[in-house]
Amino acid sequence: MMKRDGQDTIIATRNLSRTYVMGNMQVTALNQVTIDIRRGEFAAIMGKSGSGKSTLLHQLGLLDTPTEGEIMIDGVDISRLSESEQTRFRLEKFGYVFQEYAILPELTALENVYLPAMALGLSQDECVTKGVDALEKVGLAERADHRPRALSGGEQQRVAIARALINKPKILFADEPTANLDSASSKQILELFRALNRDIGQTVLMVTHELEDADIVDRVIWLADGEVVEREG
Amino acid sequence: MASTTTELKVSAFLAYKFIAKGNRGTSALTILIMALAFVNLMFTTSVFDGMGDATEKQVIDTLYSNIVIEPKDDEVYIKNPDSVVKKIIHVPGVIGTSAQYVTGATIAYEERSGAWSIRAVDPDDERTVSLVPDMMIAGEYLSKYDRGEIIIGKEIAGGHGGSLEHISLGGVVVGDTVEVTFTNGVRREYRVKGIFDTNFIQSNQLAYVTEKELESVLGIHDMASQILVKTDTKGEEGRFLNQFVELGVHEDIKPWTVYAGIVATLTQSFSVLNTLTGAIGFFVAGVTIFIVIYVSTVSKRRQMGILRAIGIKESIIIRSYIFQAVFYAMCGCIAGLVIMFAILVPYFIKHPMVFPMGNVTLLIEQKAAIVRSVGLIISAAIAGFLPSWRAVRETILDAIWGD
Q: What is the ipTM of this complex?
């Protein structure tokens, strides 16, 4: 387990870079990023548009592969994982909430939530029990049988959060989770993250461009032009 | 093993949900396209099989029955045909025999004449091996003691819209008298008692007189050029042949297929055509299914990216698309069979296609249906696999947020 400053570090990056090749040009989205995220921390990645916030989250969430640098997650050097091991890693240790309500329209709220549990091999009964629990945590148990089209944007995002929580992830990644929501729903989602972090010690790493979100998180990692420019708590 | 079961379970769950809760119009259209692809594959084959079947039936029902017993190579006639018949008539499965003479003759009417084959039969026996007696379009069939009377096929009579009108007698009707010159030079006049139409060009070129009539012409008695044997099943002629030999029949015994050169040629030609149209049909069906599934898969690209992002294995996603494609193909095959059996087959029974070998309806062979169904389902599985496999090859970010 990686320890830093006496704290239990769950994510550590060293000199992480991501360069995209666009025609003849090389675009550096991340440049030598070194950060640590503590277990149980609620951290935000903030910065201007194009600063590399989402790119950093994608590297940490194993949705993309860095050009260079190291990522240690929960003590595992993820560069050593094969593609299928990374898939399993994401299933067992990560939860994702995307900006768009990325839930499947053909499945009910409950089915969307328990799909990752089903993929872990849990029985139908266990899936339903855990799914209902997760929906209760986000306050949507009574809408378990509704399909996404019958839910509001805020409710769909809460279903996505319940799905992210179903396998008790080590880290919950959220990529601008309130960008498409009205202010009341946004507040509800952020309070939900805060409560999960406070009540069950859920590590949350969230990308946001809303400055006021900085008040609700433990720490902000500021990015500019792909580099960490400042750290604030 | 447990992990494979889990993967199959999740794949089946996703496939079921995508089908059951997806766009019903899209599902219905996909199944309709699959059904039409199946009908396209089956139709030509059914026509060819129907033609082959019609030809075989005609050869058996109006020309040679199931088995033909002929004189040994060095003899012209079978002597004492009754003794041969007695040996085989009680063999289980033998349902009729007809000993008959076959001779060539020139038949003339007014200014027109032509050479045709005449069969001399015992009308009662002939009814047990041939359907010609039931196919009279004018007059009547022969009676046992008829003398001086002849029945002729419509291609000989002419005037009935036959294919060989130009070499016919030009419109002989029942009651007319024709002059027949036999190969031994004997010339006799016969009253036309009946005209038959079997819908088969070959048997419509035959003429029939009674056995006693021809014996008087040829000056022979108690002989036969051939004995036709009717059995209760088709396709087991070989078994009967062996039994007849064991019972002491020393003449040449041949199944109907030996005489049905036209059937062999047709079957061979149909087989080549069938293979060609089948291969093209499979290709077209495969491409059609591929396009349908591809479009569906491309539209679900983002969804596939999300599934991968949350940790669903690529193999689960690919399999769910294969399951969907196979489901659509199976429904398509079933719908195609319903279209064939409920619409096309009854239609062609009511309005058969007219060919020289007779009226042809669609014949759906179980084997052909199974082969084509399995082929279509395999095509669908490949068509489900390829686009989903391609889609999971791209990066998760491209799948979710790409163009």
A: 0.88
